[in-house]
Design goal:
Four copies of one chain form a homotetramer.
Chain A lengths: L4 E2 L4 E6 L5 E7 L9 H11 L16 E3 L3 E2 L2 E2 L4 E6 L9 H5 L7 H7 L17 H16 L4 E9 L2 E2 L6 H7 L10 H16 L6 E8 L13 H10 L4 E6 L10 H4 L3 E4 L2 E4 L7 E2 L2 E2 L4 E7 L9 E5 L4 E5 L10 H22 L14
Antiparallel strand pairs in A: 1-2, 2-3, 3-7, 4-7, 5-6, 8-9, 8-10, 10-16, 11-16, 12-13, 14-15, 17-18
Helix pairs in contact in A: 1-4, 1-9, 4-9, 7-9
Chain lengths: 370, 370, 370, 370
C-alpha cells in the first residue's frame, strides 16, 4: 500500500531521500495552459532555504528546481509534471551512529521497525524535514493555479518557544514582514525576541518548537467534499504530514471548546452585496465547506528532536540502554522554515478541491487573469 | 468527485440523511471469518444514544442496526458489509425555517451553495451529527478486528465549557466510569460539575463545547504509511470529519510548541524486554508510525450551533439581514455523544493501517484469539 | 483491500449477495439537481428481467428498486445515492451440494480459496450474475446524466452460439427491435434462429455463450484520462467485471491485427463543419480519448457454466475426484440478459469520464435539456 | 483528475514525454528488502529495444535506466522507487507538420482537443509508444517481486498481419526462441515468414498489426479482488493502456462465445495432490480470481498508424480537408516491441494483487528464495 500520494484531482506524489540523489515530486491533474517555469518553483523553494543567519543549520542547500516533464513551451500540457531538486552538500557520516542508536523524538526507531531495517537512515532518509522540498514544489504549482481564482495564501510564525505574538496582525503586516526576518514573524518586535530565544537554547545545545498560522484569502464559498473529504479534514491531514507537526486547529480551534454557542457562532451579515460573517470563529469552514471568509489554520510544531545535549536511548543491536550525544548541523528551531511549507500544503489542498468541483476548469480560459 | 469514503484497506462508505429513510454504511476490506452479529454493532450504537437525562435532546432514536450483506452464518464473508439504521421519530417541520434562514455555525448556508439549493436541509440532512451513526457502525467492525491484535480504545470527556479534568486519569478509571455518567467523563467529581454547567447554559438557551481524549492501547509498533498516509495525519483527518471538531492534537500537541527538545523528546528505555519510552509526548507516533506506546489524541469540539437564543442571520431568498429564533430539540452539548464516535473513528484508522501492512491477515487464523 | 468500487468522479460501490437480503449500490459523485425517481431505475431493471419465455430461468425476480438516500423532492441532492433491490423467491437448498463440489466454470472453488471457506456460496453469493442488478441501477443514473449531453447507448446481441448476425445493422433497428425479442437481437430473422439454438441446447442440458455489441452515440470528442485511465481501458475493465465475459474489443478489435495501416487508419474528413472520420475502425477512441465518432465495443460471453449435463469435478472435503449433476433453475444462455448490463457498464464509464473533465458540471444548469 | 497511476498496493505512476527530458516512473508499495539494481531494470529495457534489423525504426535509443530513489545498499527501502531513462537522439523537426495536420490513427487530434492545444506533440508526446519504457521499468520490479513466488511470465508473438502461429507452442519454445528472432515469435518457421511480411509492407510504405499471447505460470490460486478489481478486469485494463491495443481476451476468449457449456467448462481433477483443471478455457481465472492454472491472455495490436503512404486528413488551423505524407523513422510493425511491454503489464497487475492479499509480505523473509 502506498502513502506517497495525496489529492484526488490535483494529485501529488513524492519521492526521494535526504541523502539520496534527489527530492522529487510528480504532480498530476494540473490543467493544460498554465504558464509555468522553473523560476516559479524556485521563488517558493528559496523561501524554504535556511536563513543566512546564526540561527540556522550550516548545510548549504542550493536546491535548484528542474522540471523534467509536463511543461512545453512555457505552459503546462496536462501531462504529469515531474520536478526534482538534486541533493548536494551531503555528509552522511554522522548518521552511521543513529543506525544502531535511534534518536529520541525522531523516526529512526519506528522506521527501522516499519521497513525491517532496510530504510535509508542517512540524514533521516525519507523522514527528514528535507522531503518538504517536494511539498513546496507542488505548492508552487498549486499557488499559481489558485492565482487564477485570486486566492492568496499567507503564513507566519505566531509562537516560538514561550515567545508568542499577542497583538492582532494585519494581512498587510504578514505580506510585508514575514520574509524580512529570520523567524518569519509578522510582528518585528516579537521576531527579535524569538531570535534571541533561539540563540539562547542553541547555546545550550537544545531546541525550540512553535506555532505557524496560515490564512487563505478569497477562496470561493461552497467548496469541499463532505463527509470524509471535508476541507478542514484535508487541511489537517496534509499539515500533519509535515514532519514535527503535533496539532492543528481551524478558526477558534481549541478555544472554541470553552466558548458558548452564542459566542462561537458567526452571525451572517450582508456587506456590499456579499454574504459575510461578523466574526470568523469557524475559520472559513462550516460543515467541511468553505464559506467565503478567510480560511484560518494554526499548526503546532514540536521542538527539533536533534539536539546536542546528551540523551538516553537504546542500542538496537545489543538491545540495551545507552546514551547518545549528537554532533552535526542541526537547526535549533525549524518553525521558520516550516512557514513556506505550511503555505504550500494549504495551497495544495485548496487547489485540489477547487479542481474537483471544476472551479478551475480544464481549458486555458482559466488563466486569462494571470 | 466523491468524499463519502475513507480508508484504503478497510474502506468505509457512508450514505443517508438525518431525515431520510436511513443512515447506512458499506464496509469493504474486512477479512473473512470474523464473527460478527448485529449485537456487536448495537453495543456501540447504544453508547452513542442520548443520555436519558435532562441534558440531552428529546428525539428518541431507536437506532437498531440491521446488517444487509457481507455476513453469513455469523461470520464475515470478505464481501462488503452493509449496515443500516432506519430513521424513525422524524419531525422535519421546524426545518422549513432554516431553508431560507441559515443557522449561524451550521452548514445550512455552505451546503446550499455547494449543492446549488438541492441539498436535503431537513434535520441538517447530510450535515447532521446523526451521520455519525454510520461512523459508529464502521467503528464497531473495526474494533472487533482490532481485538484480534488485543488493541483497546478508550475515549473520555476531559473538558466541557470551562470545566476541565485536571487530575491524572488512569485507564482503569476510564474503563469504569465513562459510561456511568451522562457526560462520559472518567473523573466523576468533574462529571457532576459538567452536568451542572450544561444545565445552566441550557436554561439560557445556549450551548457548550468541550474536549475529548482518545487513547489506543497495545497497537503494535511500526505501523503507518508515511509520507502522506502518516498515522497521525489519518487520525487527524477522520476526527475533523466529525461535525463540530475544530482542533486535533497528538501527544503533547500544542503544548509541545513551548517545550524544549530536551523536555519533549521521549527517551527510549527497555522494560521487560520491550522497547518503551519514559514519557509519551509523541502520543505513540513518530514519523507517522506507531512506536508501541499508547496512541493519544485530543479532539476539540465547538459548542452546538443550534441554540434557542435569538441570532443574527440573513434571508437567502430576499438577500437581507434578519433574525432567527430556533425552536426544536437541541442538545445543549454534544461532547458526551461524540465520545463513542471518536472511539469509532480511531478504531477505523487503526484497523485500516493494520490491514494495509498485513498485521491482520486475510485468513481466519487471525481471529483465533477472539 | 477493496474491489467493490469503480470510478473516480462517478463512484459506484456495490454490495449484496444472490441469496442475501438485497443487492445494493451506492453512487457517489452524481451532481445535485438531476431529476431522479425509482421509476427511472425500474425501467432499466425491467430490461434485465428474464424473458417471459421458454428460454429463460424460472426464478421470478420482482426486482423493485428502492432509493434509500441521495434523492429529495425528486432531485438528486449531491449526497450518495443508495438504491437496493430486496431479494425474494430464494431457494438456497440446491447450493448445499456445491459447497463441497465446486461447479466447473464457476467461482465456487476460487471463492472458497480466496475467502477461506467463509464466502456465501448460496446462489453463487457474491459471484452470481445477480449482482449485475447493482450495475444496472448505477447505469440507470449514469444514463440519465448522459442524456444531458445527448448521449445514447445501444447494445444488442450479435452472436449466440454459432448463430451470428452478419448483415449491417442500423441504429434504428437496434432501437426498434432489441427489446422486442427474447434474445435482444436487432436482426429479427437471426433472433428466431438464436431462440431455436437455445431451445436445442436446453433440451440437451447444455448452454450457449455469445457476443454483445455496444455503441455510444454523441459522446463528445476529447474525453478520457490517459495513460492509465484511457477510455478504452476503463471500458474494458468494467466489461470484464460482468460475470462470464472473456473478451473485449474496441472498434475493429482483433480484426485490426490482420489489417494494414492504410486500411485500418480512419481518414479525417469535415462534414457539416464537424470533424469526422470516413471509417470507424478505432471505435471512437484514439490514444484513450474519444474522437467524437460512435464508441463501439464488442463483448464475448462464455456459455453459462451451470448445465444439467453430468460433469467431472472434485470433492473439496475429501479431496478426491467425483461427478456433479446439477438440478435447479439455470438460464441456458445469459447473453440476452447481459445486454442491458453492458449498456449500464458503458454508461457508468462514460458518465464518470465526462464528470472528471467537468463536461457535466456541478450546477443544475446541466440538466436544462432534460 | 489524474490517469497516470495504476495499482492499489503496487502503485505505478508514469511521467515524461517522447521528446521531453526523460521517461520516468515512480513505484510505490514495493516492500523493503528486495535486492534491486539498475541492471535488473536494464535487462528488461533491453528486450524492448528495436531489433537491430531491417524491420525496425532507426531511432537509436540508448535507454539506460537510472534509479533515483527507493534503493539503498542494493535493496529496496520501502520508499517510492523512481527510475528514469534520459531521452537522447531526438529529432522533433518532422512533428511540426502534425501539429496542424493530425495523423490518422494517432492521438494527434484527440490530444489536441483534450489538452486544448497545449499537449507536447513532438514525437507523439505523452501518446508515443515510447512511454512504455515506463511500463517496462515498473514491470521489471514487479517481475522480481513475483520471482519470490516463483511466478514466471512468458509473452510471444502469435500473429503478425495474416501470418498466424497455428501449431501448439510449448513453454520451453517460448523461453528459448522468443528473444532469438526479430519478431519475438516462438515458432521460428513462422517468425521468418513474419519478417518477410513486414519487409513487404515496409517497401509499400505501409504497416502491420498482430497478436501477442501472454502466460503467467505458478501464480497462486485464490488471488483477485472481485467485483470491480477482478484479476481479468485489471489485466484487460492495463493491456488496453498499451498504445495500439484494440482487443484483449482471457483463456478461450471470443472463441468461448461459440462453445457449449459442456465444452467450455474446465473439469476439476486432482494430480499430485493439487487441484488442476483438465482444460484451461478460463485462462486461469474464474470469478475474477486465479485458480492456479496458467493465466492466459491474448492482446490484439492494430497496425502502426504512422505510414509513409499518402493519407487523407484535415488541417486543424484552416479546418479543411487535406493530405498528409509522412517522412521519418517509423516501425512498420511494433508487435515485437510490444512483447516485453505485455509481459511487464501482466507482472505489474499480478504483483499488485499478490501484495494486496499479503501473499508477498512486508518483511524481508519474502525474498529468501531469490
Amino acid at each position: 500500500m502506498a502513502g506517497n500520494s495525496i489529492g484526488k484531482a490535483f494529485v501529488v506524489t513524492c519521492f526521494g531521500e535526504s541523502h539520496g540523489k534527489c527530492i522529487g515530486v510528480v504532480i498530476e491533474g494540473c490543467p493544460p495552459g498554465l504558464p509555468l517555469s522553473e523560476q516559479d518553483i524556485q521563488i517558493e523553494l528559496d523561501k524554504r532555504k535556511p536563513a543566512t543567519s546564526s540561527i540556522s543549520t550550516q548545510r548549504i542547500e542550493e536546491d535548484k528546481a528542474e522540471i523534467l516533464s509536463g511543461v512545453f513551451n512555457g505552459y503546462t500540457t496536462g501531462a504529469p509534471i515531474c520536478i526534482v531538486v538534486w541533493n548536494k552538500n551531503i555528509d552522511s557520516e554522522p548518521y552511521e551512529l543513529v543506525k544502531e542508536k535511534p534518536r529520541p523524538g525522531h523516526a529512526d526507531y519506528t522506521a527501522h521497525l516499519r521497513y525491517d531495517g532496510f530504510n535509508d537512515y542517512r540524514g533521516g532518509g525519507r523522514f527528514s524535514g528535507r522531503i518538504t522540498v517536494a511539498y513546496v514544489m507542488a505548492g508552487a504549482v498549486a499557488k499559481k493555479l489558485l492565482k487564477t481564482l485570486n486566492v492568496e495564501i499567507l503564513a507566519h510564525t505566531v509562537q516560538i518557544g514561550s515567545i508568542k505574538v499577542s497583538k492582532k496582525i494585519s494581512y498587510e503586516e504578514i505580506r510585508n514582514n514575514v520574509y524580512k526576518n529570520d523567524v518569519r514573524c509578522a510582528d518585528l518586535h516579537m521576531a527579535a525576541l524569538m531570535v534571541e530565544e533561539i540563540l539562547k537554547v542553541k547555546r545550550d545545545g537544545d531546541s525550540l518548537g512553535g506555532i505557524v498560522e496560515c490564512i487563505a484569502l478569497n477562496y470561493p464559498a461552497g467548496i469541499g467534499d463532505p463527509i470524509f473529504d471535508s476541507l478542514d479534514a484535508d487541511i489537517a491531514k496534509i499539515m500533519f504530514d509535515i514532519p514535527g507537526v503535533k496539532g492543528v486547529e481551524i478558526g477558534a480551534g481549541f478555544t472554541a471548546a470553552s466558548m458558548k454557542g452564542s459566542e462561537n457562532n458567526d452571525a451572517y451579515i450582508i456587506k456590499g452585496g456579499a454574504v459575510l460573517t461578523e466574526t470568523n470563529n469557524c475559520g472559513g469552514i462550516l460543515g467541511g465547506l468553505s464559506n467565503g471568509m478567510p480560511i484560518k489554520a494554526r499548526i503546532a510544531l514540536k521542538p527539533t528532536p536533534s539536539i546536542r545535549k546528551k540523551q538516553k536511548t537504546i542500542n538496537l543491536k545489543h538491545m540495551q540502554e545507552t546514551e547518545l550525544t549528537l554532533s552535526g548541523k542541526f537547526d535549533p528551531c525549524i518553525v521558520s522554515r516550516a512557514v513556506p511549507v505550511v503555505e504550500a500544503c494549504m495551497a495544495t489542498v485548496l487547489a485540489d478541491h477547487a479542481l474537483r468541483l471544476g472551479k478551475i476548469p480544464q481549458t486555458k480560459a482559466y488563466c486569462d487573469k494571470l
